[in-house]
Amino acid sequence: MGETNQSLVQKIFKDYRFYLVLLLLIQIPLAFFYVTPGFQISGDATGYIEAIRFLGGEALESGVPHVRLLTVPLLLYLSHLLNTVLDDPYVSIMIVNLFFYFLIIPVFFRLVFEIYKDKLVAFFATLLLVSNYYFFNADNFFIGDLAGRFFFLLTNLLALLWFVRKEGKYFYLAVLSSVVGVFFKEFGALGLISLGCFILLSETVWREKMKQIFKAAILFLLPLIIFHVIFYLKFNYVYFDWYDTNIHLYPEEENQYGFDLFIKVMGWIFLAGWPLFFYGLWQEKKTFVKERAKVLVALLPASLAFFAWPMFMQRTAFIIVPWLSTIAALGLSRMNKFLAGICLLIYIAVNYNLERLLLLINLPF
Q1: Residues in CB range of 41: below 8 A, 6 or more apart
Q2: 107, 126 in Cβ contact below 8 A?
Q3: Distance, CA of 258 to CA of 174 (rounded, Å)
Q4: What's CA 356's distance to the chain center, in Å?
Q5: Going by C-beta distance under 8 Å and a sequence separation of 6 or more, which residues neighbour residue 185?
Q6: Dist. CA 178–CA 164, nearest whole Å
Q7: Quick one: pLDDT at residue 115?
Q8: 274, 273, 256, 276: which is closest to 348 by C-alpha?
Q9: Interatomic CA distance for residues 174 and 191, integer angstroms
């Protein structure tokens, strides 16, 4: 029995994912007490808390929180359920988000492993993702982004497994993941774009491809349309109202969609990771593998979906970070171990101090 336990412990310590979980545990207090000192609930997080209170029967001065009830219903109802026991909406939504915070590790690790068949690359990619400021900063524990990112990555993984293994169950699971994901956060559905791209790149005839895309679209849209119709009949509010609000949120003279802002957002979101990404891209070119290239191309369109939002911002642009991290991880795996370690330390240090850098480096645009 003792030998079996010892063997299990050794196995755990040899598993890269153990160290990723350890990092995520360390990052929780860091996020609140170092990365974002003096953290206070504000912005979008306030709306989420109010929506949980509304579900608990509390009358709000601001009225019905249409936006949150429409865009993140499953997250709110899960948090509300916990809140009936804990009587603390802040702790309730944080617990739900912590669940997805940790679940992202095995899903993304597996996704990258399926692409490269290399555990070291999968480890580096997951490390780059979870130590990114926009992944672990304290705000994320009180909004819907972590759940949305989880379902986005899960659908990507299931779509890839369908493409590689040609098993029908992964097709339906990918669609199901998107359906569930969209009720946690809008971009939880973006993995469906990846499924569509994999269908287009598959070796079946075009007629069959169109049938599969149409089937996925119907299976996804049917529950979504039913929900939105019910919501409209009850609250006289639709998603286009929310989208239109965002379009007119800023005065026209404030450029929220220009090239300069795009450069600024993309720069900050992967600041110390860009050299690693370009080195990884060069390594991809040096050791070009057609099937792997097809997979990376299929995953790219969904990662660029932030262009559809009416303004450039780091939160929405974060959707591309998993794709960037995947290629950057290949670059890290091809480096000298000492150099790779130094690069990772710099990347992590930059992300842990990003708020300070944002204040320090005031770009003129």
Answers
A1: 49, 90, 142
A2: no
A3: 34
A4: 24
A5: 71, 72, 75, 144, 145, 147, 148, 151
A6: 19
A7: 97
A8: 273
A9: 8
Map residue 176 onto helix, strand or coil.
helix
Residue 347 has phi, psi (to 5 degrees) of -60, -50
Round to whole Å and give the CA distance between 160 and 202: 11
Render pLDDT for 154-208 as a digit per residue (tens, 0 to 9): 999 999 999 999 999 999 999 999 999 999 999 999 999 999 999 999 999 999 9
Sole residue written with tokens 């993304």: 108
Mean of all residue pLDDT scores within the chain: 90
What is the C-alpha to C-alpha distance for residues 346 and 357, in angstroms, rounded to an integer? 13
The three-state DSSP-derived secondary structure of 323-359 is HHHHHHHHHHHCCCHHHHHHHHHHHHHHHHCHHHHHH
Residue 308, pLDDT > 80, answer yes
The angle, 0 to 180 degrees and rounded to 10, between the axes of the packed helices 274-286 and 290-303 is 150
* Widest distance between CA atoms in the chain: 71
DSSP 184-244: T-GGGGTHHHHHHHHHHHSSS-HHHHHHHHHHHHHHHHHHHHHHHHHHHHHHS--HHHHHH
**pTM greater than the 0.90 cutoff:** yes
| Cβ neighbours of 112 (radius 10 Å) | 25
Q: Work out the angle at residue 164's Cα, subtended by the Cα atoms of residues 162 and 167, and round it to the nearest 5 degrees.
A: 40
Residue 273's CB is within 10 A of a number of other CB atoms, namely 27
The label of the residue with tokens 């973006």 reads: 190
CA distances (Å), origin 209, targets 135, 160, 176, 198: 35, 16, 19, 10
Q: Which range is least confidently modeled, 3-7, 58-62, 130-134, 157-161?
A: 3-7
* Three-state DSSP string of 51-84: HHHHHCCCCCCCCCCHHHHHHCHHHHHHHHHHHH
**Residue 258 backbone dihedrals phi, psi, to 5 degrees:** -90, 170
Residue type, 116: Y
